[in-house]
Amino acid sequence: MSAPATAEVLSASPPATRVRPHARWRRQVDALLESTPAAVGLAIVLAWVALAILAPVIAPYPPNANDLGALARPTPSRAHWLGTDQLGRDLLSRILWGARPVLVIAPLAVLGAAALGSLLGLAAGYHGRWIGVVITRACDIVLSFPVIILYMIILAHFGSSAWNIIGVLTLTKAPIIARIVRGMTLDLREREYVAAAKMRGESALYIMLVEILPNARGPLLVDMCLRTGYNIVIIGVLGFLGIGLPPPDPDWGGMVKDTYGMMTVWPHMSLFPCAAISSLVIGFNLLAVGLREIGLRD
Amino acid sequence: MTDRLLDVQDLAVAYATRGGDVPVIPGLSFQLNAGEALGLVGESGCGKSTVALSIVRYLGRAGRITGGRILFEGRDLATLDETELRAIRGRRIAMVYQDPMASLNPVMTVGRQLMEVPMIHERVTAAVARERALATLSEVKLADPDAVMRRYPHQLSGGQQQRIVIAMALIAEPALLIMDEPTTGLDVTVEAAVLDLVRELRRRRDTAILFISHNLGSVVRVCDRVGVMYRGELVEEGSVRQIFTNPRHPYTRGLLDCLPTLGRDKRQVPLVPIPGQVEPASARAPGCGFASRCTHVELGRCTTRPIPSAELEREPGHRVACLRLYELPRWRPRRGAATPFDAGTPADAVIAAHHLTKIYEPRRRRRRYGLPRPPVRALVDVDVAAARRRTLAIVGESGCGKSTLAKVLSGLEVATEGGVTLDGVEVGGLRVDARSRTLRRKLQMVFQNPDSTLNPSHTVGYAIGRALRRLHDRAPADIAAGVARLLEVVKLPPGMAARTPRQLSGGEKQRVAIARALAGDPDVIVADEPVSALDVSVQAAVINLLNEIQAARGTTLVFISHDLAVVRYLADDVAVMYLGTVAEFGRVERVFAPPYHPYTEALLSAVPVLDPDHDGARILLEGSVPRAGEVPRGCPFATRCPRRVGAICDDVPPPVQQLGDEHRIACHIPADELRRLQTPPMATAAGR
Prior knowledge:
The complex is a heterodimer of chains A (298) and B (688).
Chain A: H1 3-10, H2 14-17, H3 21-34, H4 36-58, H5 91-127, H6 129-144, H7 147-158, H8 162-188, H9 192-199, H10 204-212, H11 217-241, H12 252-259, H13 268-297
Helix pairs in contact in A: 1-5, 4-5, 4-13, 5-6, 5-8, 5-11, 6-8, 7-8, 8-11, 11-12, 11-13, 12-13
Chain B: E1 4-17, E2 20-33, E3 37-41, H1 48-55, E4 63-72, E5 75-76, H2 82-88, E6 93-96, H3 100-103, H4 110-121, H5 126-139, H6 145-149, H7 158-170, E7 176-180, H8 188-204, E8 208-212, H9 216-222, E9 225-230, E10 233-239, H10 240-245, H11 250-257, E11 310-311, E12 319-320, E13 349-360, E14 367-368, E15 371-372, E16 376-387, E17 391-395, H12 402-410, E18 417-422, E19 425-426, H13 437-442, E20 443-446, H14 450-453, H15 460-472, H16 476-489, H17 506-518, E21 524-528, H18 536-553, E22 556-561, H19 564-570, E23 573-578, E24 581-587, H20 588-591, H21 598-606, H22 647-651, E25 656-658, E26 664-666, H23 671-678
Helix pairs in contact in B: 4-5, 5-7, 8-21, 15-16, 15-17, 16-17, 17-18
């Protein structure tokens, strides 16, 4: 299941949402900004997105350029604001460039997981009986694996690339989303509007995608936000384990892996990438908290 | 003045919202003497519950008392701090809420919860508390208090739970008992029993009661005085007799005119809904709050300054806040001809159930606690029919199978045995998705819950338009016009199409649901409790709408309801159901007159009557509906029947007695005998 399909699934109620979309959007954004955690989270995330997009413009050095002169004193200086790594590469530039793969891979993987998980969850919740049993058991099996080992096996076997990481994350996160959507579907399928749709003779697919899924979007969005944060952590872990994005392009996890041995001497080399990961994850988590607040309010 | 218990003076309450403070109660005054019962009535959104909550200062974070005093036993509750309040709440003032399950702790036995009250408030020992709990339980008429003490809340029925909550409120011997819609979620027969209990407790103890209800009938049964609230103001106040025999305020009159009662029938007396709906508190204009809906309003006079409340000259204690108090003619219950109703003949049935049986097998037939779980017999051998242009009402308490019948008729469930014919076609075995489009078009449903009948993610226009497209094969260009036309049929402006359900009131949502059901121009509409969640005036409007649609289109209406007054008003034919069987079936005027099935008789006697003089001995049903597996082999009603004759009732299924002209009763007692028993001689006529 690929990303564009998710977008279709999530906006599958066209006539409803297309009535004065601006007004609806404005209201939602206003509500979002009224919650402090959401506003802070959104600011952090948007700041990182802006930095990632502008990286080619604002990064002071090319990400892989070695400044051999700085090797003697790699600590932060006027020339290198955050210092350089053990090869004399500018840390600030590498962190800015390193935001780009993270901000593409993590959301794409979440969208993939949401698309696949929603379909599985809807089917499991709506049909019940054996389809539901098969899907939930399959999800349980995936969830019972120690994921890190699973990642290592799969990525070692298929090789590490951005697409493979997205694929692995989609597969391992979809069961969690499926579980959430299944729970909501079990409740929503008993609503009277679903009975009314059956009275019109609607197909099961229509009922799942148009009558049920849009009403599960609140909790789903919250979880997607949280899941994006977790994915960023996992991408970092994969980089740290050496099965992340291949070098030499900057990757936050890989940067920590290459330098943590020098922690006692030059802590900045691993601490700054770590801080980058943390701040982005915190941003997504705060956004999730804010979305949940809004969901609870109405 | 000596026995004044509660004196509310100019109470003002506001709720903080995003748009600033909204005054919900602008300035309210009333008094309550010791041992007196005051009823507060009004539609939802009139501030009744807010009054109750401000007395105990439970307004929550958003609510705030902005003015006035609440003198209780001489102290101003509005100024007390939390510690002082805690000493009064539960001890001197107790509260009973609508949902008993929400007031009880599910993980504690009810005995422990009862004993806690005196142990915390009066620091008595467990033994003393236990004695008190047992005594209070027998006072609220729970059989076998010892056993009840050991139960958990979920092991008790709704009626028993509410009795426990009342016992918890009474055990501290409070001076004031506040009851907020205490019987709203209960079945009629249970409601009648609980109301009788409250009335009896009042006589026995000297507890004052503030009784909040939207149900005028239950207020009559319990209270001495009534206050009618509208938009946070007390528009009329007086004794029960004054209010119900000589209502002066147009709002009170409006409430009485839109209320279906057992004496009303669509052929004789029209229901008159109050125009419009309760406006939000934020839209307060100077002058009378009711002006925008009042049929007697004089613009300029009523809408300039606040309306003072004045006491009627010849009726001490009867206060009315209306400038035209002496100008309006005296109120009389409506009489006279409504639109003549051309109900079809019962012979040619459009929809009929024949020997319909629906059995729910337990999911797993595994032995639990040594016993196999019995199948649930939701419908047993049900025979009903509805003809063109007629309304068939299915009436009964919760669990009687009326909703299952609606589902089987509409194809959301499939019959286990027997059949359903729709326009001559057998559809009992056909799930709705297996029915042809023509069949689906012929029968549509209206559901109970206005909040879940429309998809919150879809606009009104989409909901109706989709139904048009699915059931009518309309070209897309036609859809918008079709939606507008359907909205017009249900008396909503075409602009509604762009709204989402969140922006609609309950009555509007139900109208949209009706419009959606009408999209396919159906022959039959099955309506499952379509008005039970609505306020009386909105309910009247929706009932009238259904009647008009039926008259204009010749639609057959299958109307599921637990409300006998509504059924009496609306129905042409009635089926009274108990535990999946039809106890009595026939034309409405025959079913609502002797001879009755004993169950019909009990239901009818439980309906609150709007007559302060009505105080007859009534039939109170004992116990609760038996569970699956405990249903007697003979008559299902045998376990609770007040007219049970003997073992024959338990062992032999009752014969169906045909009383001519499509009226039948399933009972062992011969119809003549029933008629004799149920038509008492003149003097004691209060029997029902």
